[in-house]
Specification:
The chain has 740 residues and is an alpha/beta fold. Helix content is 65%, strand content 10%. Strands 1, 2, 3, 4, 5, 6 and 7 form a seven-stranded mixed sheet that branches. A five-stranded parallel sheet has the order 9-8-10-11-12, with helices on both faces.
């Protein structure tokens, strides 16, 4: 029996392969037929024949008009119009398929020079004189020329008709052959299909015998499959909607709120902005948790415990939700027992998420009355730990026993009417319970219809000492570096690009934004950058691939490349760093996070030891002017000019210093003027300014020149270093830096 099945399957495979070959042959023939039809349409046979016939006809009409003018039977203006029509007909057969049809034929080779010669002679009369000053002798000569030309034009028309007829006949024969072959292939195909059907019927009979043996197991598996697919589809749809529909606009909301907070708002406006920003940030954190629902379900979600101010966290949550309560006319009260520790070790984000969810539900399902929060320490949970008990009590609609039984189940809510009235996904309480259990605690609830609800969150927490305040290195205002950076932002979302451009520009950086990896690669090969903020998920070329190509082809391949993405999961961060990117930032990006990244990646730029150099860096090169020169000259040509400058001006710097020490003012002025012109032309703004000042000082008899000359020499070396760091000058091309 197995051997027989093996032979059957081999037969099926053989028939299937043969059918595939037959189908391929049919497809090829159909493609050939389609190509021939397209060729026929493209050639427009009737139009080609008609074009040559019209050329012959217009030649005869032009000859008739010339004879009428000679006989004073027609106005010369009409003759000019008739000649223009004839020339336009000549222009038609000069282009494309009209000329290629007869190109190379003897008739065409004979007629074409005669036709061109006639037009040149006729243009001498009609083109410049407009026909108005045409003498009768000239018309008679043109008439004779046109009479000679009528024969070749008639031959062209006949040959075009013959050529088109031959092509049509050839196509018809090919079509007939293709149709014949197609018919035979179809017959063979039907024979194969019949053999295939016979084998399939035999296989179906064997399967029918086995079906009865497996029917019970199949029914069970089918039910399990349907349930699994329904659950998976509901989860996938929910996560996809939450991810794509909320994350992108929420990034924009957070970004614009951050920028709005920097626009000098009034104290009341600042408070509103702060509250809105905190709400949006919490919504972003909640969205991340929803996207990670599978990890919560399997218990694989990792906590991130840190030392946090518990009292401040509780007060922030109460302040954040008070606006919603007041908007509904509800009172909101909070009571913190004195024994509640101020500093504890816990995951502040998860605790805030649980508390905000419980408060949100209490306010949502309460129309009249109040919502109260009570925090107390219940007892000692273990050595060094205490049990925090948070009680949220409301005077809302309450719940019956059936509702309480399904309250903490995923995608469930009190009842259908509540869902229609109050909305919600039914996921919040299940996530809150899972998080509480993950933190070693739990949530209990007591409720009755019409009597409100009481939720009790119990968590074991470890009291801690207040953290030490670390002094940070000195930074510029708003967390910016002490020198501006040339930053390339790569993001396919226009909202994110707009926010990043505004934020970075406000911090004083030179920003270039682009929408995809290919465009970023093109820009980075023409301009130097010190930092690239790279989105990971982009069409065509993702952020990882774009970063790899930038390392290979960018003008400054050693620039810092930092991932900037809404995919803020730990495994994504690790994958990005493993692929060679320098750092990882999660959207939405805030000034504090950006400043921390700059401190990690460019820490030396703000250290006191390098402060002088950092302060000089932005003044060394005029970036905008250099970019314009690169566009005008190409990067290689600009690099060549920079190399020539530093190779030839080193001795001039020595001469300036020597002349300054010797008091030779005229020599100093002339050499400083020489340096100034070349430096400013190449965009060396600091060096050019110093040389300009030295030139002015040399004109004054009382001014000291030696110190100014030393400053110019220092700036010469600093400018050379800046060119090397920016990729405009190779280390091997530059002479050794001067020590003076």
């Amino acid at each position: 029996m197995p051997h027989r099945n093996h032979l059957t399957w081999r037969g099926l495979i053989l028939i299937g392969a043969t059918l595939a070959c037959v189908f391929a042959g049919v497809v090829y023939i159909q493609l050939r037929q389609s190509e021939m039809l397209n060729t026929a349409v493209r050639y427009e046979d009737d139009n080609i024949v008609w074009a040559y016939f019209q050329l012959e006809t217009e030649a005869m009409r032009l000859q008739t008009s010339i004879e009428h003018v000679l006989n004073h039977e027609q106005d010369r203006t009409e003759l000019q119009e008739r000649y223009d029509i004839f020339v336009s007909r000549v222009g038609v057969i000069d282009h494309g398929l009209y000329s290629s049809l007869l190109d190379g034929t003897q008739e065409y080779l004979q007629a074409r020079p005669k036709l061109d010669a006639f037009i040149r002679k006729a243009d001498a009369y009609f083109g410049r004189q407009g026909g108005a000053g045409l003498d009768l002798d000239g018309l008679r000569r043109l008439d004779a020329e046109l009479e000679v030309l009528s024969g070749p034009l008639r031959d062209l028309s006949l040959v075009a008709n013959q050529r088109v007829a031959e092509q049509v006949d050839a196509r018809n024969k090919s079509m007939q052959q293709h149709i014949l072959v197609s018919n035979w292939l179809m017959v063979f195909e039907w024979a194969l299909i019949l053999g295939f059907a016979v084998i399939v019927v035999r296989q179906l009979r064997q399967l029918e015998r086995r079906r009865h043996e497996l029917e019970g197991l199949t029914d069970s598996l089918e039910q399990a499959r349907v349930q699994a697919e329904a659950g998976s589809m509901a989860k996938s749809m929910f996560l996809a909607n939450m991810s794509h529909e909320i994350r992108t606009p929420l990034n924009g909301v957070l970004g614009m709120l951050s920028l709005l907070g920097d626009c000098s708002p009034t104290p009341v406006q600042a408070d509103y902005i702060k509250t809105a920003e905190e709400s949006a940030r919490h919504l972003m954190a909640l969205l991340n948790d929803v996207l990670d629902a599978s990890k919560l379900e399997s218990g694989k979600l990792d906590l991130a415990p840190t030392v946090c101010n518990l009292r401040q966290l509780l007060q922030q949550c109460e302040s954040l939700m008070r606006g919603q309560a007041v908007a509904k006319g509800l009172a909101m009260r909070m009571a913190l027992d004195l024994n509640v520790p101020e500093w504890v070790l816990c995951d502040a984000t998860r605790l805030r998420q649980i508390l905000l969810n419980l408060l949100s539900n209490a306010i949502k399902f309460t129309e009249i009355g109040a919502v109260t929060i009570q925090a107390e320490v219940a007892d000692t949970a273990a050595e060094g730990c205490t049990t925090l008990r948070l009680t949220i009590r409301d005077t809302g609609i309450g719940m019956d026993d059936a509702t309480l039984a399904r309250l903490f189940k995923r995608f469930s809510q009190g009842d259908g009417s509540a869902m229609r009235q109050y909305g919600g996904s039914g996921l919040g309480l299940e996530i809150s319970q899972s998080l509480a259990q993950l933190m070693g605690g739990g949530i209990t609830v007591h409720s009755a219809l019409g009597a409100g609800s009481v939720f009790v969150l119990s968590l074991p927490l470890q009291p801690m000492q207040p953290p030490e305040v670390c002094s940070l290195p000195e930074k510029a205002a708003d967390g910016a570096l002490m020198r501006p950076l040339r930053v390339l932002v790569v993001d396919d979302n226009p909202i994110n690009r707009k926010y990043m451009h505004a934020m970075l520009q406000k911090l004083g950086h030179l920003v270039t934004v682009t929408k995809d990896g290919a465009e970023a690669l093109d820009i980075a090969t023409r301009q130097p950058f010190e930092l690239v903020l790279m989105d990971l998920h982009m069409p065509a070329m993702d952020g990882i691939e774009a970063s790899r190509r930038l390392r290979e082809r960018a003008m400054t391949p050693g620039m810092k490349i930092v991932a900037l993405t809404a995919d803020a999961f730990p495994e994504t961060r690790q994958r990005v760093l493993n692929c060679g990117l320098d750092d990882f930032l999660a959207k939405p990006l805030h000034v504090e996070e950006f400043s921390a990244m700059l401190e990690r990646q460019f820490g030396g730029a703000v250290a006191p030891a390098a402060e002088g150099r950092a302060a000089q860096a932005p003044a060394m090169l005029d970036v905008l002017m250099i970019e314009k020169m690169v566009e005008m000259l190409t990067l290689d040509k600009y690099r060549e000019l920079v190399t020539q400058f530093f190779a030839g001006k080193g001795e001039l710097i020595d001469e300036v210093q020597s002349a300054a020490r010797a008091g030779q003012r005229d020599q100093v002025r002339r050499r400083a003027h020489n340096l100034k012109g070349a430096a400013l032309t190449l965009g060396f703004s600091a060096l050019g300014g110093a040389c300009s000042g030295l030139e002015q000082q040399a004109l004054s008899a009382d001014a000291e020149l030696e110190e100014e000359a030393e400053q110019a020499a220092t700036l010469f070396n600093a400018t050379r270093r800046a060119c090397v760091e920016s990729g405009y000058l190779a280390d091997l091309d530059a002479p050794a830096l001067r020590s003076d």
